[in-house]
Amino acid sequence: MKICLLTYDHPHKKTAQVYFGLRESGRHEIDFMIMPFVKRKPREVLVDHRPGSLEGCSVQSISMRDGNKVHLYQDWESQIDKYDYFIIGGSNLIDQGFANSGKILNCHAGLIPATRGLDTFQWDILNGLRLGNTLHIIDEHTDAGEIIYHCETPVFLEDHILTLAERHYQMEIWMLQNFDDLLKRPKVNEYKTNPATRRMNIATEAIMLKAFDEYKAKFAV
């Protein structure tokens, strides 16, 4: 299968992890499409549940080693018919026409439609919702489109919030690395639709952390 990883013009941990897993499978021809990286002011958080997300190797370094093509995002219209799928490693806002093409796969760190938007891991804990990831074909709407696979994240009483966050993240990476298998055996559960969430502020995060033990008791295996 011919795929293109959509990502930033900057070292990005998730993109590299997805790429190396896809490459080792030997099932795909893989290229990249890069968006301009916009540096944002660091957020104040109590727990960094995804440390080092902007560290590691760049797309340019990978392509020099492995011979991948690297396309610029503004050229998406000339590239869209050359690939079976585009997989989101990281991205800014995507043009409406591209988003509605039916060719962009994403793994959202929440169980759509119950959890959509930002900081889904934290909001699920605060709101007492089950953790999980959703592989889906995107459209122009926030965390919507065609759902391919729901994967709930196991919770254990022994978990620290960081061990749970890491397990949740690694399952997201696994789903992207194995997207082709999941396309062949879709699994879609029914969840109540909830509004999309915004960034969680530090005061609300403190409340979420206090609720963590109660959350574990509710969902632990």
In short:
This protein has 221 residues and is of the alpha/beta class. It has helices spanning 13-25, 59-66, 76-79, 96-99, 120-127, 161-177, 179-184, 202-210, 212-219; strands at residues 2-8, 29-35, 70-72, 85-88, 104-108, 132-137, 146-152. Helix 1 (13-25) crosses helix 6 (161-177) and helix 5 (120-127) crosses helix 8 (202-210).
Description of the molecule:
With 221 residues, the protein is an alpha/beta fold. The protein has a single domain (2-108, 131-154, 163-192), classed as Rossmann fold (3-Layer(aba) Sandwich), CATH 3.40.50.170. The chain has helices at 13-25, 59-66, 76-79, 96-99, 120-127, 161-177, 179-184, 202-210, 212-219; strands at 2-8, 29-35, 70-72, 85-88, 104-108, 132-137, 146-152. The chain has a 7-stranded mixed beta sheet with strand order 3-2-1-4-5-6-7. Strand 4, helix 4 and strand 5 form a beta-alpha-beta unit. Helix 1 (13-25) packs across helix 6 and helix 5 (120-127) packs across helix 8 (202-210). It is globular and about 50 Å long.
| Distance, first to last CA | 37 Å
What structural class should be given to the helix and strand makeup? alpha/beta
What is the average of the pLDDT values?
Answer: 96
**Basic shape:** globular
Number of helices: 9
Instruction: Supply the CATH architecture.
Output: 3-Layer(aba) Sandwich
> Total strand count, please?
7
Full CATH superfamily name: Formyl transferase, N-terminal domain
Number of domains: 1
What are the key terms here?
about 220 residues, Rossmann fold, seven-stranded mixed beta sheet, alpha/beta
Blueprint (SSEs and pairs):
Elements: E1 2-8, H1 13-25, E2 29-35, H2 59-66, E3 70-72, H3 76-79, E4 85-88, H4 96-99, E5 104-108, H5 120-127, E6 132-137, E7 146-152, H6 161-177, H7 179-184, H8 202-210, H9 212-219
Parallel strand pairs: 1-2, 1-4, 2-3, 4-5
Antiparallel strand pairs: 5-6, 6-7
Helix pairs in contact: 1-6, 5-8
